[in-house]
Amino acid sequence: MEVTYKFLTAEEIHSPKYIELQNKIHGKNGYVSRLKRMAHYAAMGDFRVIVAIINGKMVGQASAYKVKAVIEGKEQPFYWGCDTFLLPESRGHGVGKHLQNELHKSCLNFSSAWYSPINGIIKRKCGGTDLIDLKFTYYPVSNFCGLMWQLVSAKMFKKRLTVKVQIPFLYYKLNRWFHRSKLKGYEMREILYSELNEEIAEFMESSLKDYDFHIKRDLEYLRWAYGWKEGQYHMLAFIRNGKIEAIVAFSKPHDATHVIAHFRGISILDLVISPDSDLTVKDILLYVIQYHRERNETIEGLITFEQMNYFPKFTYPIPSTPLLSTYGKKLQKGYISFIDQDMDQI
After folding, report:
1. What is the CATH number of domain 136-340?
2. For the whole prediction, is pTM greater than 0.85?
3. How far lies 277's CA from each of 226, 282, 317, 346, in Å?
4. Most confident of 32-41, 122-131, 210-219, 319-328
């Protein structure tokens, strides 16, 4: 078996062999749908696709795109791993590991979340180490027992079973009773995509300056990241005395997934609070739930990386999952959110 590996040029991404590979992996029109994602990644300026070729036939790929990160106070290039897949008949020969290894060698600060044990083991063997800890957390609004039953039934019976045990906004109400909100006196203003400007970017970037790690939120990045989701999210600014103190962005209600459980809910895309503000994560997240309640939009829960004192909640995995990177050092205080990579499918 002759295996070769090749980084594709922009022209080769449109070649018949690559189109055939995409359609075999993602269905009849898979190439067309994936091409939109690739164009989005490439818009940041450096998108790399490497393919594995066995006996002249493309059998799999791995890819990465570049953004800017601020790591320990210094701006650096940062590559996200994305869209890795192999044809079933080519698995078990070390092809996937070799694809990942090429990206580890050629992309500075190559990183990705530990999506599965196999995924994580391969990345560790290629040189990836823990950068920061991630906590994928589900906060119920009207459904907790039903979600847990999906998880338990899938493990016990190898089949995900659903049951309707929903009381609208039950858990929100319980947690609201035991929380003293600090939002009195604040104006909550919606920011449309067309209204993203330097003021918003400067607020977000300055509010994250105390973190050891974050993806740089300059205006170019915000327009790129949120342009991909335009019309599918809300962004709110919390303003007091004419000054922004917090910004939160969240998806519109959609069919979301947490681990393998399905629910109707929202994903928190960004949540940035000024270090000078008295507002807390819980103030902001409870208001996001209230936002949907006021509009009679029923949601079962929300998923986010942010942590708050809320009962019950479900974090997976316990206690956290690592963001693996070739940076070579673990950091204690990192900020990452769902807008930074396509992770809300977890």
Report:
1. 3.40.630.30
2. yes
3. 25, 13, 31, 31
4. 210-219
pLDDT of 344: 41
Locate the domains of the chain by residue range: 3-127, 136-340
Bridge partners for 101 per DSSP: none
pLDDT tier at 343 (50, 70, 90 boundaries)?
low
End-to-end CA distance of the chain: 35
At 120, the pLDDT band (50, 70, 90 cuts) reads confident
Give pLDDT tens digits for 296-321: 999 999 999 999 999 999 998 888 88
Q: How many angstroms separate the CA atoms of 49 and 21, rounded?
A: 13
**In the CATH scheme, what architecture does the domain 3-127 have?**
3-Layer(aba) Sandwich (3.40)
3-state secondary structure the chain: CCEEEEECCCCHHHCHHHHHHHHHHHCCCHHHHHHHHHHHHHCCCCEEEEEEEECCEEEEEEEEEEEEEEECCEEEEEEEEEEEEECHHHCCCCHHHHHHHHHHHHCCCEEEECCCHHHHHHHHHCCCEEEEEEEEEEEECCCCHHHHHHHHHHHHHCCCCCCCCCCCCHHHHHHHHCCCCCCCCCEEEECCHHHCCHHHHHHHHHHCCCCCEEECCCHHHHHHHHHCCCCCEEEEEEEECCEEEEEEEEECCEEEEECCEEEEEEEEEEEEECCCCCCCHHHHHHHHHHHHHHCCCCCCEEEECCCCCCCCCEEEEEEEEEEEECCCCCCCCECCCHHHCCCCCC
